[in-house]
Protein backbone atom coordinates (compact mmCIF):
# COMPACT_ATOMS: atom_id res chain seq x y z
CA UNK A 1 0.00 0.00 0.00
CA UNK A 2 1.04 3.57 -0.72
CA UNK A 3 2.49 5.24 2.38
CA UNK A 4 1.94 8.97 2.66
CA UNK A 5 5.15 9.79 4.47
CA UNK A 6 7.50 9.75 1.44
CA UNK A 7 6.58 13.23 0.24
CA UNK A 8 8.63 16.12 1.61
CA UNK A 9 6.73 18.61 3.79
CA UNK A 10 4.89 21.31 1.83
CA UNK A 11 5.72 24.07 4.28
CA UNK A 12 5.53 27.71 3.23
CA UNK A 13 2.69 27.15 0.76
CA UNK A 14 1.17 30.54 -0.07
CA UNK A 15 -0.45 30.57 -3.46
CA UNK A 16 -3.40 31.16 -5.72
CA UNK A 17 -5.49 28.58 -7.53
CA UNK A 18 -6.90 28.42 -11.06
CA UNK A 19 -8.21 31.39 -13.12
CA UNK A 20 -4.88 32.34 -14.74
CA UNK A 21 -4.79 35.32 -17.10
CA UNK A 22 -5.36 34.10 -20.65
CA UNK A 23 -4.47 35.27 -24.12
CA UNK A 24 -7.07 35.91 -26.81
CA UNK A 25 -6.66 32.31 -28.06
CA UNK A 26 -7.54 30.89 -24.62
CA UNK A 27 -3.98 29.79 -23.83
CA UNK A 28 -2.53 30.79 -20.44
CA UNK A 29 -0.62 34.09 -20.50
CA UNK A 30 2.48 32.62 -18.85
CA UNK A 31 4.45 35.87 -18.48
CA UNK A 32 1.52 37.74 -16.96
CA UNK A 33 0.71 34.94 -14.53
CA UNK A 34 4.32 34.76 -13.34
CA UNK A 35 4.57 38.54 -12.97
CA UNK A 36 1.40 38.57 -10.83
CA UNK A 37 2.57 35.64 -8.68
CA UNK A 38 5.88 37.39 -8.02
CA UNK A 39 4.06 40.62 -7.21
CA UNK A 40 1.83 38.73 -4.75
CA UNK A 41 4.86 37.15 -2.98
CA UNK A 42 3.32 33.76 -3.82
CA UNK A 43 5.52 30.72 -3.20
CA UNK A 44 3.14 28.41 -5.03
CA UNK A 45 0.67 28.31 -7.89
CA UNK A 46 -2.09 25.70 -8.00
CA UNK A 47 -2.76 24.80 -11.64
CA UNK A 48 -6.24 23.60 -12.61
CA UNK A 49 -6.60 21.35 -15.68
CA UNK A 50 -10.19 22.02 -16.69
CA UNK A 51 -10.72 25.20 -18.71
CA UNK A 52 -9.69 23.97 -22.15
CA UNK A 53 -7.81 21.19 -23.91
CA UNK A 54 -4.49 23.08 -23.75
CA UNK A 55 -4.21 23.27 -19.95
CA UNK A 56 -2.04 20.14 -19.71
CA UNK A 57 0.32 21.41 -22.40
CA UNK A 58 0.39 24.90 -20.87
CA UNK A 59 1.30 23.39 -17.48
CA UNK A 60 4.36 21.78 -19.06
CA UNK A 61 5.42 25.15 -20.49
CA UNK A 62 4.78 26.88 -17.16
CA UNK A 63 6.82 24.61 -14.90
CA UNK A 64 10.35 25.56 -16.05
CA UNK A 65 9.40 29.27 -16.07
CA UNK A 66 8.01 28.99 -12.53
CA UNK A 67 11.14 27.11 -11.42
CA UNK A 68 13.31 30.04 -12.51
CA UNK A 69 11.27 32.28 -10.19
CA UNK A 70 11.42 29.79 -7.31
CA UNK A 71 7.68 29.08 -7.53
CA UNK A 72 6.37 25.63 -6.64
CA UNK A 73 3.39 24.17 -8.48
CA UNK A 74 0.44 22.00 -7.45
CA UNK A 75 -1.95 20.61 -10.05
CA UNK A 76 -5.63 19.61 -9.81
CA UNK A 77 -7.82 17.43 -12.00
CA UNK A 78 -11.58 17.29 -11.68
CA UNK A 79 -13.59 14.27 -10.46
CA UNK A 80 -16.49 12.55 -12.28
CA UNK A 81 -19.00 15.00 -10.71
CA UNK A 82 -17.28 17.88 -12.56
CA UNK A 83 -16.47 16.05 -15.81
CA UNK A 84 -18.36 15.52 -19.06
CA UNK A 85 -21.25 14.94 -19.56
CA UNK A 86 -22.14 16.74 -16.31
CA UNK A 87 -19.77 19.65 -16.99
CA UNK A 88 -18.70 21.43 -20.14
CA UNK A 89 -15.13 20.18 -19.81
CA UNK A 90 -13.30 17.24 -18.32
CA UNK A 91 -9.63 17.35 -17.37
CA UNK A 92 -8.01 16.77 -20.77
CA UNK A 93 -6.41 14.72 -22.25
CA UNK A 94 -6.77 11.79 -19.80
CA UNK A 95 -10.29 12.54 -18.55
CA UNK A 96 -11.34 10.27 -15.70
CA UNK A 97 -8.35 7.91 -15.96
CA UNK A 98 -6.91 8.98 -12.60
CA UNK A 99 -4.30 6.25 -12.52
CA UNK A 100 -2.96 7.60 -15.80
CA UNK A 101 -3.03 11.16 -14.42
CA UNK A 102 -1.11 10.05 -11.32
CA UNK A 103 1.59 8.42 -13.42
CA UNK A 104 1.82 11.36 -15.84
CA UNK A 105 2.13 13.86 -12.98
CA UNK A 106 4.83 11.74 -11.35
CA UNK A 107 6.73 11.53 -14.66
CA UNK A 108 6.44 15.27 -15.17
CA UNK A 109 7.60 15.95 -11.60
CA UNK A 110 10.85 14.09 -12.26
CA UNK A 111 11.58 16.51 -15.11
CA UNK A 112 10.22 19.51 -13.18
CA UNK A 113 10.94 19.02 -9.45
CA UNK A 114 9.00 22.20 -8.62
CA UNK A 115 5.83 20.19 -9.34
CA UNK A 116 5.41 19.10 -5.73
CA UNK A 117 1.77 18.06 -5.29
CA UNK A 118 -1.33 16.93 -7.14
CA UNK A 119 -4.95 17.04 -6.10
CA UNK A 120 -8.43 15.91 -7.07
CA UNK A 121 -11.17 18.48 -6.64
CA UNK A 122 -14.26 17.53 -4.61
CA UNK A 123 -12.53 14.22 -3.78
CA UNK A 124 -14.90 13.18 -1.00
CA UNK A 125 -18.00 13.94 -3.11
CA UNK A 126 -16.80 11.13 -5.37
CA UNK A 127 -15.87 8.26 -3.08
CA UNK A 128 -17.89 5.82 -5.21
CA UNK A 129 -15.12 6.31 -7.77
CA UNK A 130 -12.31 6.94 -5.31
CA UNK A 131 -12.62 3.83 -3.20
CA UNK A 132 -9.70 3.20 -0.92
CA UNK A 133 -8.41 0.45 -3.25
CA UNK A 134 -8.68 2.58 -6.41
CA UNK A 135 -7.14 5.64 -4.73
CA UNK A 136 -4.30 3.46 -3.45
CA UNK A 137 -3.72 2.06 -6.95
CA UNK A 138 -3.47 5.60 -8.37
CA UNK A 139 -1.03 6.66 -5.67
CA UNK A 140 0.98 3.48 -6.15
CA UNK A 141 1.28 4.32 -9.87
CA UNK A 142 2.73 7.73 -8.95
CA UNK A 143 4.94 6.37 -6.19
CA UNK A 144 6.56 3.80 -8.50
CA UNK A 145 7.78 6.74 -10.61
CA UNK A 146 8.36 9.48 -8.02
CA UNK A 147 7.63 8.78 -4.34
CA UNK A 148 8.26 12.44 -3.51
CA UNK A 149 5.17 13.76 -5.28
CA UNK A 150 2.52 14.63 -2.68
CA UNK A 151 -1.21 13.90 -2.94
CA UNK A 152 -3.39 16.57 -1.29
CA UNK A 153 -7.06 16.13 -2.25
CA UNK A 154 -9.74 18.78 -1.74
CA UNK A 155 -12.09 17.76 1.08
CA UNK A 156 -14.80 19.85 2.74
CA UNK A 157 -15.29 20.09 6.49
CA UNK A 158 -18.56 18.12 6.59
CA UNK A 159 -16.89 15.23 4.76
CA UNK A 160 -13.86 15.04 7.04
CA UNK A 161 -15.50 12.49 9.34
CA UNK A 162 -13.79 10.00 11.66
CA UNK A 163 -14.67 7.31 9.10
CA UNK A 164 -13.10 9.27 6.22
CA UNK A 165 -9.95 9.86 8.27
CA UNK A 166 -9.71 6.20 9.31
CA UNK A 167 -10.17 4.97 5.74
CA UNK A 168 -8.09 7.48 3.77
CA UNK A 169 -5.80 9.15 6.31
CA UNK A 170 -2.79 6.90 5.72
CA UNK A 171 -2.93 7.57 1.95
CA UNK A 172 -2.93 11.38 2.09
CA UNK A 173 0.03 13.76 2.26
CA UNK A 174 -2.23 16.62 3.31
CA UNK A 175 -5.76 17.99 3.13
CA UNK A 176 -6.80 20.92 0.98
CA UNK A 177 -9.63 22.34 3.06
CA UNK A 178 -11.95 24.94 1.45
CA UNK A 179 -13.10 27.01 4.41
CA UNK A 180 -16.72 28.13 4.55
CA UNK A 181 -17.69 27.96 8.25
CA UNK A 182 -19.56 24.70 7.77
CA UNK A 183 -19.67 24.04 11.51
CA UNK A 184 -21.94 27.13 11.63
CA UNK A 185 -24.11 26.04 8.70
CA UNK A 186 -21.90 27.19 5.76
CA UNK A 187 -21.38 30.79 4.69
CA UNK A 188 -18.70 33.10 3.30
CA UNK A 189 -19.15 35.76 5.99
CA UNK A 190 -17.90 34.21 9.26
CA UNK A 191 -14.11 33.87 9.65
CA UNK A 192 -14.33 32.86 13.33
CA UNK A 193 -14.44 29.09 12.75
CA UNK A 194 -11.06 28.82 11.00
CA UNK A 195 -9.16 27.89 14.18
CA UNK A 196 -11.77 25.54 15.69
CA UNK A 197 -12.43 23.72 12.40
CA UNK A 198 -8.72 23.17 11.71
CA UNK A 199 -8.27 21.94 15.30
CA UNK A 200 -11.07 19.40 14.91
CA UNK A 201 -9.65 18.21 11.55
CA UNK A 202 -6.21 17.75 13.11
CA UNK A 203 -7.63 15.54 15.88
CA UNK A 204 -8.74 12.98 13.29
CA UNK A 205 -5.41 12.47 11.51
CA UNK A 206 -1.80 11.64 12.34
CA UNK A 207 0.09 14.36 14.15
CA UNK A 208 2.06 15.63 11.14
CA UNK A 209 -0.82 15.75 8.63
CA UNK A 210 -0.69 19.20 6.97
CA UNK A 211 -3.92 21.15 6.52
CA UNK A 212 -4.02 23.81 3.80
CA UNK A 213 -6.86 26.31 3.77
CA UNK A 214 -8.46 27.20 0.45
CA UNK A 215 -9.99 30.69 0.81
CA UNK A 216 -12.95 31.76 -1.32
CA UNK A 217 -11.95 35.04 -2.91
CA UNK A 218 -14.21 34.15 -5.85
CA UNK A 219 -17.96 33.71 -5.31
CA UNK A 220 -19.45 30.31 -4.48
CA UNK A 221 -22.38 29.12 -6.61
CA UNK A 222 -24.66 28.70 -3.57
CA UNK A 223 -23.13 30.90 -0.88
CA UNK A 224 -22.51 33.99 -3.01
CA UNK A 225 -19.53 36.34 -2.93
CA UNK A 226 -17.03 37.05 -0.18
CA UNK A 227 -15.89 40.57 0.78
CA UNK A 228 -12.29 41.79 0.78
CA UNK A 229 -12.47 42.14 4.58
CA UNK A 230 -13.59 38.51 4.93
CA UNK A 231 -10.69 37.35 2.73
CA UNK A 232 -8.29 39.35 4.89
CA UNK A 233 -9.60 37.88 8.15
CA UNK A 234 -9.64 34.29 6.90
CA UNK A 235 -6.12 34.75 5.51
CA UNK A 236 -4.81 36.12 8.81
CA UNK A 237 -6.36 33.25 10.78
CA UNK A 238 -5.23 30.62 8.27
CA UNK A 239 -1.63 31.83 8.58
CA UNK A 240 -1.98 31.30 12.33
CA UNK A 241 -3.64 27.87 12.33
CA UNK A 242 -3.01 26.11 8.99
CA UNK A 243 0.12 24.77 7.28
CA UNK A 244 -0.41 26.89 4.19
CA UNK A 245 -2.94 28.94 2.26
CA UNK A 246 -4.30 28.82 -1.27
CA UNK A 247 -6.63 31.45 -2.66
CA UNK A 248 -9.59 30.31 -4.74
CA UNK A 249 -9.21 31.75 -7.36
CA UNK A 250 -6.27 33.76 -8.64
CA UNK A 251 -7.52 37.38 -8.64
CA UNK A 252 -7.19 39.79 -11.56
CA UNK A 253 -5.23 42.80 -10.21
CA UNK A 254 -7.33 45.27 -12.23
CA UNK A 255 -10.82 43.81 -11.86
CA UNK A 256 -10.44 42.72 -8.24
CA UNK A 257 -7.81 45.10 -6.95
CA UNK A 258 -9.06 45.18 -3.33
CA UNK A 259 -8.77 41.41 -2.88
CA UNK A 260 -5.57 41.24 -4.92
CA UNK A 261 -3.90 43.80 -2.64
CA UNK A 262 -5.12 42.03 0.52
CA UNK A 263 -3.61 38.78 -0.72
CA UNK A 264 -0.37 40.56 -1.58
CA UNK A 265 -0.21 42.10 1.90
CA UNK A 266 -1.10 38.78 3.55
CA UNK A 267 1.51 36.79 1.62
CA UNK A 268 4.26 39.29 2.37
From TrEMBL:
Species classification: Bacteria, Pseudomonadati, Bacteroidota, Chitinophagia, Chitinophagales
Source superkingdom: Bacteria
Positions of region (Disordered): 1-22
UniProt name for this protein: Uncharacterized protein
Organism annotation: Chitinophaga cymbidii
Amino acid sequence: MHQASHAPPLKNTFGTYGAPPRQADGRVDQAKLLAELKDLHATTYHWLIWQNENDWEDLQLFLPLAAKEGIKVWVTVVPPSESKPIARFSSEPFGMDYKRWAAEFARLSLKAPNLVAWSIDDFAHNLKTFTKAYTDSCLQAAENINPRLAFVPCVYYKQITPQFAATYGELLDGILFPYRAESAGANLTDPSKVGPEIASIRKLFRKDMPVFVDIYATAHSRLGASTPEYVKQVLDLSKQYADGVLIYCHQDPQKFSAKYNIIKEGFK
